[in-house]
Amino acid sequence: MNPGLLLNGTICFAITLSSLAFAWVLSRNKERYKENSKPALFSLIVFWTMVGLTYLPTTIRMFAAYIGNQEIDAIMYFVTAIPFAFISVPLVFFIIYVITGSKKIGEYISLFFTLIGAAYLTFLYDSGIVGPMITEWGSIFMINSDAAINLYLMGLFVIPTSMILGLLLLIFLQRMPKRIRYRTALPLVAISFVFDFMLTDTIAIVDVMQMFARLFVFIGTILAYLAYFPPMTVQEKLGIQQQINDEQNIHTDHNIEFYLKDETNKV
C-alpha cells in the first residue's frame, strides 16, 4: 500500500467536489443571467459537470489501486473515458456561441465533435488498454491504440484549444472595461488550464506527471471559480469593483453579455 496513491485519490476527489460544486453554483444563479446568455451558461454547467464526472471514477480508481484491486481500477478507467471523450463538446458550443451568438451553429459543430468523441471511444474499447502500472504515486494505464490517441489529439484537443486561444485574442483586441476583460479572459484561461492538463493526465506515462497534471486541474477549477466570484480584495486590487451606477452605462454586445449578470434584478 502506497500513501502516494491516497494523496492522488484525494486530489481527484477535490477536483470532483470543486467542479461539481461550481457547476451547481452556476446552475443556482442561472436566473440572474440574461436570456440570450443562458445557452452559453448551460454549456459551462455541462462542462464542469463532466469534469467532475471524469474525476469521480478516477477517485475510485486510485483507492482501488491503493487496496490492490486491479479489476475495479480497469473498469473505472473505461468509465472515466466516457465523459472525457465528450468534454470538448460543451466547450466548443460555448466558444462558438460566444463568437457568433448562434445556437444552431453551436449545436451543429458540437454534433461533429460528439461524433469524433464516439469514434475515440470505439477505437479505445476495441483496442483495449495496457496496465495498470501501480507505482508509489499513481496507477497508470496506456491506451493500446495510436488511432485513438491521434484522433483525440487532433480532433478533440488541438481544435478546441486553438479556438480558446483565438477567442482570447479577440477579447484582448476588443476595447472593453477592465472588469469585463477580467471576467471574460480568466474563465477561458482556467478552462484551457483544466482542459489541457486533463489530456496530460490521460496520456501520462510517469506517475509524477499524472500527479502534477491533476494538481493543476484542481488549480484551474479554483481559478474558474475566482473568475466568476472574485474576492473583494481582488476586485479592489484590479479596479474591477462592481459599481451599479457604472455598469448601467456599459454597453456590451451578445458576445460579452454572458459574463454580465442581469442588473435589472438589482434595481
How does this structure look, described?
Keywords: Membrane, Transmembrane, Transmembrane helix. This protein has 267 residues and is mainly α. The chain has one domain (3-266): Rhopdopsin 7-helix transmembrane proteins (Up-down Bundle). The protein is 75% helix and 4% strand. The chain is built from 11 helices and 2 strands. The protein has helices spanning 3-28, 38-66, 70-85, 88-100, 103-127, 146-173, 178-203, 207-228, 232-238, 244-247, 254-257, and strands spanning 129-134, 139-143. Strands 1-2 form a two-stranded antiparallel sheet. Helix 3 (70-85) packs antiparallel against helix 5 (103-127).
Summarize the structure.
Keywords: Membrane, Transmembrane, Transmembrane helix. This protein is mainly α and 267 residues long.
Shape: globular
Percentage of residues in helical conformation: over 70%
Major beta sheet, strand line-up: 1-2
Alpha-carbon distance between the termini? 59 Å
- What would you report as the Rg, rounded to the nearest angstrom? 20 Å
Transmembrane segments: 6-27, 39-56, 76-99, 111-131, 151-173, 185-205, 211-229
Keywords: Membrane, Transmembrane, Transmembrane helix
Topology:
Blueprint: H1 3-28, H2 38-66, H3 70-85, H4 88-100, H5 103-127, E1 129-134, E2 139-143, H6 146-173, H7 178-203, H8 207-228, H9 232-238, H10 244-247, H11 254-257
